[in-house]
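Figure S7 source data.
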Amino acid sequence: MEEKELPFPYEFEELKPEEHELLKTFFGSAIHANYIRLGPKGYIVFKNYKKDAANIYNMPLRPTDVFVVSYQRSGTTWTQELVWLIENDLNYEKAAELPLTKRYPFLDRFMCFDENSKEEYIDTITKTEENFNREKFSELLTYLVTPVTPWLAAMPLTTRRFIKTHLPMSLLPPKLLDTAKTVYVARDPRDVAVSSYHHAKLIKMFNFQGEFKDFWKLFHRDLYMLTPYFEHVKEAWEKRDDPNMLFLFYEDLLKDLPACIGRVADFFGKQLNEEQINRLCDHLSFENFKNNESVNYENLRGAGVLAKGEAIIRKGKSGGWRAYFDDEMTQQAERWIEDNLRDTDLRFPSMNQ
Ligand code: A3P
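Tokens for the predicted adenosine-3'-5'-diphosphate complex:
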């Protein structure tokens, strides 16, 4: 029997004029004019999200589905590759052949780009790109703005679906954990902020014009995509004991990758021997990952959309935020973290020292 569609339960709400003004200082209109808040937590999404929000919420699930969920820049790509390899019996050949983007439809990517902003994007890109290829870019943009729910629905039932998303749990199908497996990865928000700042500079279409301090101001005031950050993490943390949820920290992956591999393998009911774990650790090491064309997104350089000097696989360290925060920002961050951790037992491994 077909499941009945649920009504989409959340309302969209325009940002306040002063919030738009602040965003306008640092971003082009493709961002500042397209941000909108969603639901009781006020998650920042793009207006384009409206076109697939209900489809995502009502997405028919399969028991074999695997979701990798995170706030952006928390180690998603790393976790995706780890999960995929474990679930695919360490098929390194296939992992090399098929780029991660083909192995994992990215549920919310479509909302971040806007076909109507094409000329603005081109203006920004051509400021720094000498060999701009309009046709190649147009093709890429069409791909970027296309929702992936139809692609997912069309996948044969015999195919295990791996799904990447930065959406918080409350925007995903309510029965997700009753049906399919989810791996959530979280990271110290100060490192997420720094990594997101570099990401905002990397993707030329985002047209971010500012310093880290400016970015931080937006991020910790819940004025960056899919913030409020802590709400995002807490929603998943509250479900961490569900048998279909595995909650990981980026810092644990860094500190003890073999132990994390063991947890992922247990979660999926797989057993790996020492040799297999060692090879997987090597494959997932930062240096190998950075040079792995199947996961590093470097192919996007050809379309001219990535800024020089920035990369998706960037530093791969914990605590790098210290070099970016002055005393005032450090104290601000401490207060912000304390306020947000008061009502929860969520603790980031990096905060235990
Ligand atoms: P930094 O920008 O701090 O280096 P996401 O995949 O969610 O966008 O997360 C990206 C972050 O994970 C980046 O952080 C990136 O360098 C880091 N990362 C990716 N692969 C990694 C690996 N194999 N080892 C350590 N960190 C990795």
